[in-house]
Amino acid sequence: MTRLIAADEVPEGAVRRVRPNGLEAVAVCRIDGTFFATQDRCSHAKASLSEGWVEGHDLCCPVHDGRFDVRDGRPMCFPATDPIRTFPVQVVDGVVFADLRAARTDQEVSG
Question: Is 3.30.230.10 the CATH number for 2-98?
Answer without folding.
Answer: no
